[in-house]
Specification:
It is built from ten helices and 15 strands. It is of the alpha+beta class. It folds into two domains: 161 residues, Jelly Rolls (Sandwich), CATH 2.60.120; 94 residues, Arc Repressor Mutant, subunit A (Orthogonal Bundle), CATH 1.10.10.10. The strands form four sheets. Strands 2-4-11-6-9 form a five-stranded mixed beta sheet.
Length: 276
């Protein structure tokens, strides 16, 4: 039985060293621990033939991106299909007023940049690193070979594109909500998932600053909205995740049919306390 091809590296070149472009694996650095990437652990590549994965090993390049680094630039050339190996990234765009809007997050095992691989057009959005991250890059020619000549991969890419269209539609609807608190509630409701144990959670919840970018409001507004949810027992913080104790109440708040929004409006309308 053939062993699963793996990619080993010691010291990847950083995004800053390459201006955000592709970076080949650097020579091993003395004293640096070696890491190994098992390609079968990447969902897009799972169950592919060992020979296909061996060809990818030869073509893959590795890049490190420090927190805040630009991994992809909107309008840039789509020369690579990218895989996030470690860390966390965010897809961002700008609205008509030029304000930055966060669209979605990229987690380890995810791939991105496929639109430009398929249609050859420039990148449709930018991607930044939310924390120190490790990215693998597959050149365009090998990426097209992977997508067009392997039905399993093509099906996965198509399903992913369909899900992305649906998600984008949801985010557009959220941004169309006039009440800022309700936009926060709607985003949290969108991010919540039912865990295998039946608990509704938001794993690795975005920071308040990231949420504020995603719903086009201030970080302070996000903080107050979360405080209302916690005060009323709708959600509960648990390290990097948020437990949704009352999913029905969160849903009602998201669509504007709950007293949570009314409470916010009442607080906002109240006159400031007199100073003595």
């Amino acid at each position: 039985m053939s062993k699963t091809p793996r990619v080993s590296y010691r010291n990847a070149v950083s995004a800053a060293d390459t201006g955000g472009a592709a970076a080949s694996t650097a020579a091993p650095a003395a004293g640096k621990p070696a890491f190994t990437i098992n390609l079968q652990n990447i969902p897009l590549l799972r169950d592919l033939e060992p020979e296909t994965l061996k060809q990818m090993v030869v073509a893959l390049q590795i890049k490190q991106a420090g927190r805040g680094a630009l991994v992809l630039h909107k309008g840039g050339a789509g020369d690579y299909l990218l895989f996030l190996l470690a860390g966390r990234l965010q897809v961002i765009d700008t609205n008509e007023e030029g304000k930055e809007i966060g669209l979605s997050f990229i987690l380890p095992g995810d791939y991105f940049g496929e639109l430009s691989i398929v249609d050859g057009a420039p990148r449709s959005a930018s991607v930044i690193a939310c924390e120190n991250s490790l990215v693998a890059l597959l050149p365009r020619r090998q990426a097209q070979e992977l997508i067009y000549h392997h039905p399993l991969v093509a099906e996965r890419v198509l399903r992913r594109m369909a899900a992305s269209v649906r998600q984008a539609s949801c985010f557009r609807a959220i941004l169309g909500i006039s009440n800022a608190f309700q936009r926060v509630f709607a985003l949290l409701h969108q991010l919540a998932e039912v865990s295998p144990g039946g608990l509704t959670v938001i794993n690795k919840i975005p920071t308040q600053q990231e949420i504020s970018i995603m719903v086009n409001t201030s970080r302070e507004t996000v903080s107050r909205a979360l405080s209302v949810l916690i005060k009323q027992g709708v959600v509960e913080k648990d390290l990097r995740r948020l437990i949704v104790r009352k999913p029905n109440v969160l849903h009602a708040a998201a669509i504007g049919k709950d007293l949570l929004v009314m409470e916010h409006n009442a607080v906002s309308a109240a006159p400031p306390p007199a100073r003595h």
